[in-house]
Amino acid sequence: MIESIRKNMERNRTIRHMEIIAAVILLLLSLFLFLSGFKKLNACDGNVNYVGTIRMERQFEEEDYDEDSTVCDVLYTKDDLQLIVSYPYEDYIRLETEEIDAYEYVTDNGIHLCFDHQDPAYGEIIGTYKQVITEKETMRFNAATSYLILAVSLLIVLLFSGFFTLYEKCWFMGIMLLATVFAILFPEESANGVNGILIMLLYLLDIFLNILCELLISKQSRYNFLVSILVEITEILICVILRYRFATMVVTLFFWLPIDILSFINWSKHKDEKQDELTKVRKLSGSQELLVLLCIVVWTFVAGYLISGLNIQTDFFGYDRNLEKLIIYIDACASAVGMANGLFIFFRLREQWLAWYLCAFLESMINILSGQYVLLILKLGYFTNTTYGYIRWSRYIREHRSDDKTMF
Questions:
Q1: What is the pLDDT of residues 247-291, one digit of tens each?
Q2: Are 389 and 217 in contact (CB under 8 A)?
């Protein structure tokens, strides 16, 4: 690894120094934002002063619970103040009030907190304070996370500069810069009791790891599978936290993780004789493509039907069951295309790039319907790199027509 870094590190002294300075600045900015954010988050000592009662309005559009729900959260607001009251389902269905009298308190550092009862306990004060501050400081924490991942991206470009072309470095950093801007401007809301800041962190990790993996695949590098394992772990965590895309989660767990390991072994057996970092690649026949398409259609309808029959509650879609079912079927199709793609990659077939096009399109639909706009940056990366990878692989296949006809 050390020898590889020495061989590939940026050789232009001016550019190298500029990249080092930029990476250090990003790391220091990230550290400052994290520390200042945590300082604000822990600034409350539990002392509050009673202000008075205020009338808050119930936000009905935030509610959509059914008999399978155990606890139902009701949101009340007034101006920029919020109060969330949790009711057991039995009490929730009998709840007819449109307003509530909330008790307003203010902390020593001027933060206003609302409760549905007087004299809140110390734990309630601290918990509510952190909830309010976290929401107020979402942009700060998202920026800190984004700058940290952007710094890591820049360090990869710096340390492995000789391994990447100028286009590849610009593409990689361009996608990460866009992801940084979107993460700051379009923060994620909390879902299923998980803070939106943590969700955004997973999104940014997903983007970073995915585009690095995609870039390595386009370069016919077997090391993409080592990065891909981290991609699968990240995406499983996202599915678990958001309680959605169960077809993709199952396929990732039982298909992608094993196929990544097997693919690394298979690709290692088919190195290019002249360039050790390259893997020999091939293309598929027409009849085989038709069989793959048929399997995708069958999987989509069978998996979509089975998963849509499961009554799994998530507040990520605002309890819109029709939207949830639509995404389930799109996800089932995406998971089928993904499995085909995984097999194409395992067998070193150029058709994996065509599968990436379709998979990126289906996942873009899911991201738009789910409001996951920051992940659209990843799909932009998919579309551009897929074109680049298809061209590179096609050129290699033309130049090596008689080489390596074996599958394994």
A1: 888 888 999 999 999 999 999 888 877 777 788 887 766 566 677
A2: yes
